[in-house]
Amino acid sequence: MWDEEFVCFRDIDPVAPHHYLVIPRDHIVSCKSLNRSHIDLVERMAKFGKEVLLDQGITDMENVRLGFHQPPFISVGHLHLHVLAPASQISTYMQHKFTPGTDRFITVRLANEFSSYFIFFLYYCNVFFT
Question: What is annotated as the active site (predicted)?
Fold first, then answer.
C-alpha cells in the first residue's frame, strides 16, 4: 500500500501475524532526527498504519502496537513505523524488541497517554528544541 507521502509493506521478518512498516517517502534517518515540524507527519504515519490494518480486516485497535526503534537499535537508517497486530501475538522470543517504553521501542500509544504527546515522544528520542 502506498500514497504520495508513505509506503507500507510487510516486515521481512515479522514478529506478529500482521507486521508492517510505514515509511515516509522523504528521508528521515531515525526518530532522533525528528523535530517539531514532524509532529503531523508522525500522526499521519500512525493513521496510515491503522488504515492498512483495517484493509487487512483488523478491527481491534486496542490490540495493536505502533512504534519506532531508536538508534542504536535500528537496522535501517530511514525512519519507519512498526505496525503490529495482534499485539497479544507478538512472538515471545521477540517481545524484548517491542516492549513499550523501553530504550528499544517507543510506542505511539504510550506517548499518546501523556498530555504532551509529541513533546514527550521527541524528548524521549533525545531531540532538543532551540
Answer: 80 (tele-amp-histidine intermediate)
Selecting among 27, 80, 82, 96, the annotated active-site residue is 80
Residues of the chain with pLDDT under 50: 111-116, 127-130
Q: Residue 93 carries which DSSP code? A: G
- pLDDT by residue (tens digit) across 92-118? 999 989 988 777 887 665 544 433 455
Which CATH code is given to the segment(s) 6-124? 3.30.428.10
Q: Which residues of 90-121 are buried (b: 16+ CB within 10 A; e: fewer)?
A: beeeeeeebebebebbbbbebbeeeeebbebb
60-74 in b/e form (b: 16+ CB < 10 A) is eeeebbbbbbbeeeb
Stated pTM of the model:
0.83
